[in-house]
Amino acid sequence: MTFLSRRTVLAGGGLLLGAACTRRFATPDQAGTLPIPRLLDARDHGQRIGLRAQEGETTFFPGRRSATMGYNGSYLGPTLRVHRGDDVTVTVSNNLSADTTVHWHGLLVPGELDGSPHQTISPGETWRPTLPIRQPAATLFYHSHAHGRTAEQVYAGLAGLLFVTDEEEQGLGLPSDYGVDDLPILIQDRQFVDGRLVLPAGMMVALDGRRGNVILVNGAYNPRADVPRSLVRLRLVNGSNARTYDLSFSDGRAFYWIGTEGGLLEKSVELQSLTLASGQRAEILVDFSDGKPVSLVSAPDQSTLRVHGMGMMHRHEASENNAGNETVLTFSPRLASSKRGSTTLPLLLASRAVPDPATVVARRRLVLNMRLGGMMDSDEEPLTINHRRFDIDRIDEEVELGAVEIWKVSGQKMAHPFHIHGVHFDVLRRDGEEPDLLDQGPRDTIVVDEPVELLIRFDQPAPKAPFLFHCHILEHEDEGMMGQFSVT
Questions:
Q1: CA 29 to chain CA centroid, nearest Å
Q2: E strand map for 62-155
Q3: In the beta sheet, which residues pair with residue 196?
Q4: Is 340 helix (H, G, I), strand (E, B) or coil?
Q5: Is 378 exposed, middle or buried (CB count within 10 Å of its CB: 0-12, 13-18, 19+)?
């Protein structure tokens, strides 16, 4: 697939026509209803799910078609739901013109099932992994992890949500009517020129990640969600390539944080704002019983890239009007509460066993290196981990199956969302102190600005197909800020 670059659009270049699918979304002056991805529950399909990666066209704005990619459609993919204790076979067909993969971000499976670059699917080929679902209920994320093409393919639309459910979660009485009071919220920023999706390029894109001037939710701009006048569960997923969102509600109302990337918290946390970096997820409960319309908003994208000798370099702003918060999604509590609808918040959520730090057998240190000054005339790679650029044929770390370790991770020049495949971890310390409030719970992606210490137990084998660890700014991982480890 040929993606439109900013230069092509500004020069008046045309679109590639004749693609498989076209889909329309809301316009800026006429917000449409929030699109809800089709739900594919594995138990409804004999524990078999089919995904087809394909090229297509999507009309995000009237009369402006954009070349895109999607699973089983032109942009994004269906929501997959699996149940703890089941074995689910997923058939993934590659109808693209390039290699791809499907990585089950946050799913705890052996290395050969992870969907990393070690499980590449060539054009015209099919991959059929059988996934053992053995982890607690959680909101996960699946997306392309093609070697050197992750950023481009995810930007084009190769992503979707994956829910794990279990009896413990189902017994809590949480909102669970999919698309009504249990909403998938996949947030992305994308760059549009004259209503067409473009692919930013250049040196600063490689360093800072692709950032957009439009926020999409489930592929739609400025949508409206009609919700019941009761507690509503929002499954928030940051599917952007690089941007971090500082989310709150336009009227300042409180909400209840109930889950992280690895599953439910032990008890809910009342908040008025929540930060999500690329790859991070959060489940929250919002009370709409007052019937008042309200918007989910984000602070402007104003974080900075620290350039030695140049002070702070502000990233490109994500809105033409950057004076206030940007609207992500508007809620209209116009639906009557269902029989299952509730305004009662569960006092306790999920219990879990945290590894004992006294059992730690090894400590490792990782530094996410960025070289900016003089990079054009230097042999040193600009984006590395421990000064080593990713090499798919090199094992960077060797871990023993069942071991408990502490990894101390630090970054340079900017805050990096750090993701480890095949594990959930706990944050022990941040900058030598107690973790922040938002560090709690089982995680698979954590923001690294100051050094963080992560407590990890390695329960998934990866003797031949290693797991990855990397910055989840997708352009950073494509450019080399990634390593891999075996578990034997």
A1: 28
A2: 64-71, 79-83, 87-94, 103-105, 126-127, 130-132, 138-143
A3: 193
A4: coil
A5: exposed
**pLDDT at 101 (0 to 100):** 98
Residue count (the chain) = 488
Q: Is the pLDDT of residue 313 over 50?
A: no
Run of H or E residues at 425: strand 425-430
Query: How far apart, in whole angstroms, are the C-alpha atoms of residue 349 and residue 423?
Result: 21
**Cα(244)–Cα(353) distance, integer angstroms:** 30
In single-letter form, the type of residue at position 466 comes to: P
DSSP at 152:
H
- The answer to whether residues 432 and 334 touch, using CB atoms and an 8 Å cutoff, is no
Reading the block at residue 72, the tokens are 């089983």
Helix (H) / strand (E) element for 238: namely strand 231-238
pLDDT more than 70, % of the chain: 86
102, 140 Cβ separation under 8 angstroms:
no
**pLDDT, tens only, 249-258:** 999 999 999 9
Q: Coil, strand, or helix at residue 334?
A: strand
- Per the DSSP assignment, residues forming a β-bridge with 282 are 236
Q: Which of 261, 241, 146 is nearest to 201 (CA)?
A: 241
Give tens-digit pLDDT for 420-477.
999 999 999 999 999 999 999 999 999 999 999 999 999 999 999 999 999 999 999 9
CA distance 477 to 195: 29
How far apart CA 77 and CA 53 sit, in angstroms, is 9
Closest Cα to residue 225, out of 182, 268, 278, 165? 182
Percent of the chain with pLDDT strictly greater than 90:
80
- Measured CA to CA, the distance from residue 381 to residue 479 in angstroms comes to 9
**Which run of H or E residues covers position 197?**
strand 196-198
Spell out the residues 6+ positions from residue 73 whose beta carbon is closer than 8 angstroms to its own. 21, 23, 54, 56
- For residue 459 the two structure tokens come to 């329960």
pLDDT at res. 379: 62
C-beta neighbour count of 439 within 10 angstroms: 18
pLDDT tens digits, one per residue of 50-107: 999 999 999 999 999 999 999 999 999 999 999 999 999 999 999 999 999 999 999 9
Sheet (strand 326-335) strand order? 224-228, 326-335, 294-298, 245-249, 273-276
H/E stretch holding 404 reads strand 404-411
Residue 304 pairs in a beta bridge with 314
Instruction: Give every CB contact of residue 179 below 8 A, 6+ residues apart in sequence.
Output: 36, 39
Give dist(CA 392, CA 118) in Å, integer.
8
The pair phi, psi for residue 169, each rounded to 5°, is: -65, -45
User: What is the per-residue pLDDT across 105-138, written as a single tens digit (0 to 9) for each?
Assistant: 999 999 999 999 999 999 999 999 999 999 999 9
pLDDT on residue 460: 98
